[in-house]
Amino acid sequence: DGGITQSPKYLFRKEGQNVTLSCEQNLNHDAMYWYRQDPGQGLRLIYYSQIVNDFQKGDIAEGYSVSREKKESFPLTVTSAQKNPTAFYLCASAPGQGSYEQYFGPGTRLTVT
Amino acid sequence: GESVGLHLPTLSVQEGDNSIINCAYSNSASDYFIWYKQESGKGPQFIIDIRSNMDKRQGQRVTVLLNKTVKHLSLQIAATQPGDSAVYFCAENYGGSQGNLIFGKGTKLSVKP
Question: Which residues of B touch A31 (CB under 8 A)?
């Protein structure tokens, strides 16, 4: 059963704490992405990775960090430096190499108080 | 500003009617377009895509039309059903950024029984 999974679905943290969101895919996709979605808004790109051990900043990378040590995993850390971390976070993967369709996970809703 | 946008933020249709969701893009270099459906609290799901060398593509109950002259994209849903109620996003890839997609803000489709 192939797909992309994110965990947990809901996450609550106190202000000042770092938190890591999980994203795993078994689609053998090269590319992986992290987006942030705020209410009534589109998706904004945080970080992306086209290949293992390499990643690039997206449009809103400040206050976030990622790693890509394995092809199937692309965890996102929301650091205390992120001024407004409460949001819905979506992970996606794509085959890469000219294929642009991105497959999305179910999302993680992070609430920081 | 955003290169991908939507003419209408909300659309309400009667069950059984056809729905048309519009999207404008500003980058004439864009060569790939995709529509996603997002239900509340879930990740976006692929609906249909189209490359710039086509002007129409049909799927099951959905048709995407591309007008490169006026940089306009539309999604037509035939015989709209209550299960079609969701937010619909268009996205474009303009050939740069290694296959990244640029998303619009979305249109909320509500289907009245």
Answer: 98-99
SS3 B108: strand
Q: pLDDT 10s per residue in chain B (113 long)?
A: 334 544 448 999 999 999 999 999 878 888 899 999 999 889 999 999 999 999 999 999 999 999 999 999 999 999 999 999 999 999 998 765 566 888 988 999 999 98
**Residue B84, SS3 per DSSP:** helix
d(Cα B10, Cα A107) in Å, to the nearest integer?
Answer: 23
Which whole-number Å values give the CA distances from A27 to A47, A73, A107, in the listed order?
19, 11, 17
Nearest to B49 among A58, A92, A101 (CB): A101
Contact B63, B80 (CB under 8 A): no
Whether A41 contacts chain B with CB within 8 A:
yes
Q: Is B40's Cβ below 8 Å from some Cβ in A? A: no
Q: Which residues, 6 or more positions from A34, have their beta carbon under 8 angstroms from its beta carbon?
A: A23, A45, A46, A47, A48, A58, A64, A66, A74, A76, A89, A90, A91, A92
